[in-house]
Amino acid sequence: WRRNHRNTSCVIMSNNMQFMLLFSRQGKLRLQKWYVPLSDKEKKKITRELVQTVLARKPKMCSFLEWRDLKIVYKRYASLYFCCAIEDQDNELITLEIIHRYVELLDKYFGSVCELDIIFNFEKAYFILDEFLLGGEAQETSKKNVLKAIEQADLLQEVRYVIKPPWEQ
Amino acid sequence: MFDLEVLVTTERERSRKRGGLALGDPAASSGLRFKNRRPEVPASGDNKVKICHCFIRKLLCCSVRLNPDATFLSGGGSFKKGKSKEAEIKRINKELANIRSKFKGDKALDGYSKKKYVCKLLFIFLLGHDIDFGHMEAVNLLSSNKYTEKQIGYLFISVLVNSNSDLIRLINNGIKNDLASRNPTFMNLALHCIANVGSREMAEAFASEIPRVLVAGDTMDSVKQSAALCLLRLNRTSPDLVPMGEWTTRVVHLLNDQHLGVVTAATSLITTLAQKNPDDFKTSVSLAVARLSRIVTSASIDLQDYTYYFVAAPWLSVKLLRLLQCYPPPEDAALRSRLTECLETILNKAQEPPKSKKVQHSNAKNAVLFEAIALIIHHDSEPTLLVRACNQLGQFLQHRETNLRYLALESMCTLASSEFSHEAVKTHMETVINALKTERDVSVRQRAVDLLYAMCDRSNAKQIVAEMLSYLETADYSIREEIVLKVAILAEKYAVDYTWYVDTILNLIRIAGDYVSEEVWYRVIQIVINRDDVQGYAAKTVFEALQAPACHENLVKVGGYILGEFGNLIAGDSRSSPLVQFNLLHSKFHLCSVPTRALLLSAYIKFINLFPEVKATIQDVLRSDSQLRNADVELQQRAVEYLRLSCIASTDILATVLEEMPPFPERESSILAKLKKKKGPGKLPDMDDSRRSVNGSTDSTHSFTDVLNLNPAPSSGANLLIDVFSESSAPAAATDVSEENFPRFVCKNNGVIYENQLLQIGLKSEYRQNLGRMYVFYGNKTSTQFLSFSSSVSSSDLNVHSKAVDPVIEGGAQMQQILNIECVSDFSDAPVLNIQFRYGGALQNIAVKLPVMLNKFFQPTEMMSQDFFQRWKQLGAPQQEVQKIFKAKHPMDTEVAKAKILGFGVALLDGVDPNPANFVGAGVVHTKTTQVGCLLRLEPNMQAQTPNGNAAPPATDPSFPFGAGLPGSHLGICSRCRGEQGDGFVGLKGTWPKSHELKVAFDLASFLPPDGRVCERLLLRT
Q1: Which of A65, A60, A58, A55 shows the shortest CA–CA distance to B400?
Q2: N-terminal to C-terminal alpha carbon distance within chain B
Q3: pLDDT tens, residue by residue, B99-138
Q4: ipTM tops the 0.90 cut
Q5: What is the 3-state secondary structure (H, E, C) of B149-170?
Q6: Edge-to-edge strand order for the sheet containing A17-24?
């Protein structure tokens, strides 16, 4: 009996986000983050298909859909769609809240964020995402801590750090 | 934006000043929203805004113009869509040329310009254009000592990974310096980059370094978090490179960390590692339960910023629950009850009134709840929790949130396969059927179909199939095929009466003929052919269905085949006389495609055999120009040959050639296989299992299994119809490895290892020390050639050399192949023989597990009594000893047992054991690298039924395995295992590594039950 359980445990996949896409209502990709290695061609194909599928859905429909062998979790904020792909065993609702937490972080950082903030400051959007999610997993879920890390990094801009190579230390 | 100094101070102000599509005030609205305000572009006069901003703005003029929200751009001109795309490309090409010339120019660029251009490239790439240069500049930036430049360099590398090995070395160098810098911000940048790229080269360079960073006492919390997830990513891409072992315990103890962020990251890492090595991370279970228990019992403010909309640490809770799903329920009673308490608390919280009306609150709360339910289902051991979970999901089925209804349906699917909750799930059938009818979202309806499929059993099959059929009429095209497959499977699986099955399939074809795949209609034909009680009904039904003025081609196929075989069963009725049947079929002929016409021609020739009275009519049809001179070769050939056959063959020959199809061989349902393929592995609840657990036993009425694949023809008889199918010769699906006869070879070396309708494989083998030679005989049972015959042996542990074989085996002939086998070291997996050949145009794949076990390399050893027992006692360590208990099915026969033990490979030592009823044996297993001595003892008890003084079980007690009432002929208990009532034993002892004893014991043990002559407990010593 115990053996059985061990066997089944191998089948369970980890909570693993495969990728996250942000795109506008016009289908323009605004941010892409891939947590699995894929070729550029595949990425483009996936993006095209997914943007089309999600944009075709009506407002009152549920936020989850099956797509290939993945589950897509998406939510629309004004003109922007936030869309994550997760694996079969993963938790959809918590992914929905990951999206929301990310939007909150952007909002807090930019102060009333808008699509243009993400276009003009795309690198910031990436840095915030890296502080919050790494390798497809939530790294730091405290809003305060994430923003503190970003602000600390911002402070560094004016400081010149001299890093000596190890052999000179 | 590149003047980040300025940006930091003015960012807030500026963005407020220029407005924008702002996120609403979270406190004011029910959730965060991007608000559609009319933004202004940053004024170009603002000299703080640098070139890249200008560039982005210009591009926006090209591309964002189409955004109706971005009306700020509409004053500038009136590009049309195509034009704006062109303008964008033009602008970008210009810019790319500019950047390229800057990078290639003689003048060295300063860090600022480099950063600017790299950033532009990044932006162009993100717009969807290809970038094939700039990597070198990015690497330069990455090793800059200025933070802003470093940051952009890392971002470029993370986004545009390139497996250019020269660059990877340079990148790794930069990362190495940053990791060694002890500046947490730099270390984080480096770790993020490794986690984002995660390439093998990076794993090679850093996999041993990062664990040290992770567990070091002086590492900052934020760096620990990054390091944990970085390691997780590397472990996913290159698990072989991530060292395990010395830091395992310290990683597990991160679950106790003060900092919840560290715990969150570490839990993900541990979960990933525990999936691969559950034993190494076992200790994480108690820590995870303790952590979870503290979280679920905490007040919502305790966890400060980790509380999310009044829910305590939802992400961490979900991850902990997920980690626990890597393990069975804890054995420790206290731990187990603490976990049960946690799960109960989570279920209780679902019933409490919400602390906030925000959707985020309920989402986070329910995310934890669904994960808890997933854990309850995984444990599948607490009926009360399972039923509570089911009731909770039942409430969600009628919730106003579409998301919750969707998830409840999805989650209930897995609950349906648990024996404890299957009945509870069934009570929601009406709700689910209702969902099928009323849900507006197709993905929710699809979940409802899945759930109906999962909850189906004998008691509700008719209703569920009927509901699915009626839904099929209006179902979305995208899911029709899947529903068709499901209906076909359920109808077959739960058919008590096969007339219902035939009706259901014909209905399927009527409602959704286009979506009925070949598998489905093949299947109905096979079932009709295999079950003679339904043949008459099937003939009558298809005959009636064909009366419809417009019927689907699939129906014509089924009708043609069934009437061709069983039309005689209804020919007695004048309304369906042979001529009427023929005319009916032929009226459809001209509307059908070539394959269907070919099938109909075969049906006609069968008619000639069945009904001599229509012979002339059919011959006329065959003789017509449209048949004999048909442009299609296949049709023409059939018409010519069938006509000729009907003219020259005597009735006897016709009757033989056109005999009724023999029953199809049993086979796994290819409909099921198709559905599995469609849905991906692991997606479908295993219906066989669930049914078994619900009904207590499998049904004997369903002893036939699917025979759908028609490609391999049954034996040599003239089955004319078979070629109708073989022309669609899809390659045979990958076959499972046949192990059926494998156990028979444990104690013998010769015999038939595999046999099907086409092929028989016999073996003859001999072994000497660590070498073996096996003669494989392939017998062609058919009268036709096997073409392109090839065979290969795959083995992970043994050296197997096979001699090449002739690619053709004539009909009825036998071919021999020699395999030379060398045992290198101890092994547990037997080699597999893969065979491929072509028969009648169809490719056949067969895989057979070859009976080469460790015991084949035994050399018998003679030994005196004293020696034997001295060694036996020396080998007392638990890892040197294996015991096995067997239930006896037949009376004990000394001679058979002796033959078995000799066949196993050891020497049978007479007069060694003081008890003459016992058998002892000794042998040495020879491998190329080592030799392992092995002692064996089989201790049956030949005395009365109850040697230990208990009353004999009554003869009627089916649980008593021996032939009670046959005193002296069954096995009893030996001294070593007294108390194991009724079982004999055999022991085996050895000095090989622990993992192998079990295998050896198993091999030895497995020779006992199949023949059923010996029943004992096995104790083996080596």
Answers
A1: A60
A2: 75
A3: 988 888 877 788 888 888 888 898 888 887 888 888 888 8
A4: no
A5: HHHHHHHHHHHCCCCCHHHHHH
A6: A29-34, A17-24, A80-86, A70-77, A64-67
Mutation site for B-interface testing, chosen from A1, A4, A6, A15 by largest number of B Cβ within 10 Å: A15
Cβ distance B4 to A154 less than 8 Å, yes or no, reads: yes
B178 touches chain A (CB under 8 A): yes
Per the CB < 8 A criterion, the answer to whether B545 and B506 are in contact is yes
How many helices (H) does chain A have, and how many strands (E)?
A: 6, 7
Q: Which of A147, A124, A155 is nearest to B147 (CA)?
A: A155
Q: Are A36 and A18 in contact (CB under 8 A)?
A: yes
**What per-residue confidence (pLDDT) applies to B702?**
32
Tell whether A88 lies on the interface with B, counting CB pairs under 8 A. Answer: yes
Q: Are B141 and B115 in contact (CB under 8 A)?
A: yes
Q: Across the interface, which of B23, B271, B363 has its CB nearest the CB of A96? A: B363
> CB–CB of A143/A98 below 8 Å?
no
Q: Is B742 within 8 Å of B783 (Cβ atoms)?
A: no
Distance of alpha carbon B577 from alpha carbon B594, whole angstroms: 27
Rounded Cα gap, residues B25 and B900, in angstroms: 82
Query: Looking at CA atoms only, how far is residue B1006 from chain A in angstroms?
Result: 19
B850, HSE (Cβ side, Cα atoms, 13 Å): 29
**Beta carbons of B403 and A127 less than 8 angstroms apart:** no
Predicted confidence (pLDDT) per residue in B458-479, tens digit: 889 999 999 999 998 888 888 8
Q: What is the pLDDT of residues B696-731, one digit of tens each?
A: 333 333 323 333 333 333 333 333 333 333 333 333
Rounded CA separation B861/B292 (Å): 59
DSSP per-residue letters across B347-371: HHHHHSPPS--SHHHHHHHHHHHHH
User: What b/e readout covers B991-1015, taking b as 16+ CB neighbours within 10 angstroms?
Assistant: bbeeebbebbbbbbbbbbbebebbb
Instruction: Say whether B405 and A64 touch across the interface (CB within 8 A).
Output: no
Q: Most distant CA pair in chain A: distance in Å?
A: 62
List chain B residues with CB under 8 Å of A121. Answer: 1, 7
Phi, psi dihedrals of residue B666, rounded to the nearest 5°: -80, 145
Cα separation of B819 and B804, whole Å? 10
**What is the nearest CA distance from A119 to chain B, expressed in angstroms?**
8
> Please, are residues B429 and B423 in contact by the beta-carbon 8 Å criterion?
no
Asked whether A101 and B364 are in contact (CB, 8 A), the reply is no
pLDDT at B981: 29
In this complex, which of B1, B67, B130 lies closest to A24 when CB atoms are compared? B67
* B268 near A CB under 8 A: yes
Nearest Cα neighbor of B194 from B234, B142, B141, B243 is B234
The first and second tokens of residue B567, run together, are 């039309």
Give the length of chain B.
Answer: 1022
Helices (H), B181-313: 184-197, 200-206, 210-215, 221-237, 248-252, 260-276, 284-297
> Known binder of ligand: residue B932?
no
Cα radius of gyration (chain B)? 37
Q: Which pTM was predicted?
A: 0.64
Considering only CA atoms, which of B145, B169, B220 is closest in space to residue A164? B145
